[in-house]
Amino acid sequence: MAANKGVHEVEDDALAAIDYCYERGWTDGLPVVPPERSRVEAMLAMEGRPPETVIASHPATGLECSLHGAAVNAVMAGCLPEYFPVVVAALEAVNEPDYSFHASTASTGGSAPVVIVSGPVVRELGMNSAGNVFGPGNRANATIGRAIRLIIMNVFEMLPGISDQSTQGHPGKYTSCIAERAESSPWDPLHIALGYGEDISSVTVFAGSGFCNVENHGGNTPESILDCVADAMASLSCITIGQSVVVLSPEHADIVASTGWSRADVCQYLFTQANQSVEVMQRVGKYV
User: Fold this and answer.
1) What domain range includes position 242?
2) Pair 2, 66: CB distance under 8 Å
3) Mind listing the pLDDT tens digit for each residue in 155-188?
4) Same domain, yes or no: 51 and 122
């Protein structure tokens, strides 16, 4: 990838540079922003460390991503320079052993990084934390998640059908980045729940295998709403040996919290309700 292997010059216009990126296999299938030197330098200016600083490495291949490599791909994804600290934090998160970076990038299950941003940076970057939060329409959400995917492909060389053995994949493998709507939550924001101060922002990354939309338009008790969530989590088509990320809309969260339920209460209830018997799991041939 150009990020770590020198400078490539393309004579002509921006479209020629985009086509060159296609020819070199540096895109996710969509057009990319040509990573001109000035754009990369503007990205790196948001970081105080040297460009050659390694911020993540792939445990199976040993390939490393430097700040410079991350900046090149962030430009290509369409990020503004002020988004770069979030991209870096997300990469440092996937580099943590608990994330299981190799399995999430190579397995047939097809998981992809789900980036969850919490704290003051959400408002500062104008991130979408409201309707259509997993959908299109917001530059920060779309390009931060896309930058992570381009880095996985271009720097770590986890390529579809080659090193990335995902059976079917899912749209989140293009981009998946959401922001928490702290002002509409009845509970402490995620970054505070994780132990950070009010003025500190956090970036949490989860290897997600896909989305399951849980609809409940009439529930008015914690149980009536959370039973639907638990049913989706324990569905034979969805249940795995992994964990689940549950994203509640403000209306549902307010109903659940109105009787005094805490975030911990919600987690405990889902833990006890979202399950299948050993007999059923054996019948369908899953994990036993």
Assistant:
1) 212-288
2) no
3) 999 999 898 888 888 899 999 999 999 999 999 9
4) yes
Whether 98 and 159 map to the same domain: the answer is yes
Q: Is 272 exposed, middle or buried (0-12, 13-18, 19+ CB in 10 A)?
A: exposed
pLDDT digit string, tens, across residues 85-138: 999 999 999 999 999 888 888 888 888 999 999 999 999 999 999 999 999 999
Report whether pLDDT(154) > 70.
yes
235 vs 143: CA distance, rounded Å: 32
- Are residues 184 and 236 located together in one domain of the fold? no
Last residue of a domain, one of 209, 227, 254: 209
Q: Is the pTM of this model over 0.85?
A: yes
Q: Which amino acid is at 61?
A: T
Domain boundary among 186, 209, 232: 209
Provide the 10 A C-beta neighbour count for residue 260: 8
Residues 29, 134 within the same domain: yes
